[in-house]
What does this fold into?
Amino acid sequence: MNDISVITLNNVVKRFGKQTVLNHVNMQIYPGQIVGLIGPSGAGKSTIIKIILGMELADEGSTNVFGKQMPNRRLLGRIGYMAQSDALYESLSGRENLQFYADMKGLNKRSSDMQIMHVAQVVDLTSSLDKRVNGYSGGMKRRLSLAIAMLGNNDILILDEPTVGVDPALRRSIWAELKKLRNQGKTIMVTTHVMDEAELVDEVALLLGGRIIAYSDPYSLKQYYQVNSIEEVFLKAEAINNAYNVNY
Ligand SMILES: Nc1ncnc2c1ncn2[C@@H]1O[C@H](COP(=O)(O)OP(=O)(O)O)[C@@H](O)[C@H]1O
Ligand SMILES: [Mg+2]
It folds into this structure.
């Protein structure tokens, strides 16, 4: 493993009013890894992602991407980001949406045509590409957003709940593609609350009560908690965490 981290969070604290959402979060993500950020709804997963991208400012601590502070325009060009809510042009077709984002990424006509074909295939939207997005189902919109995030030769993919509303067969092919990108040395951060997806990542970060309460590969986590699935790891870690916080 390369020891220079791609994404580093150092004692990050984030408050919204009186609520402390992130309470000294530390993370180091290395190249060629898929990191799964797991936690219940409201745990702060999207907030971590927005802080990494420089869309939210932390109240304390520091965040770096390739050793630089975000937001940084040049670095943003190397990151494919899929937000939790789709940012699509509803009155345009899927292809036109992809074309728009390909232009923003600065892809030339030839490579954008090729890449649009490829990413559409990965998310199984090829036959619907010329339909308007306002006629897409929720799952199709998620898939189009994922396809957009995959455009460009990104070094980093940051995907916020990419497989919500995506059926299991397609989920599998999406994960196969993510692994392929990982094997090419790309760094992928993905949030999910689908626990069996957490089995597929290289490192699992469990976010609970504003802290990363566990951060390791799925196998080690299951061994440590002496359970058979990441779902059970999560439940056990949560129970232990709650027990600790009784007097808190
Ligand atoms: N802009 C905001 N203003 C106030 N509270 C926010 C804001 N963004 C997120 N929160 C709160 O921070 C917490 C974490 O949110 P979020 O990061 O979206 O969680 P997750 O993605 O894990 O579901 C939630 O309680 C949410 O209501
Ligand atoms: Mg979220």
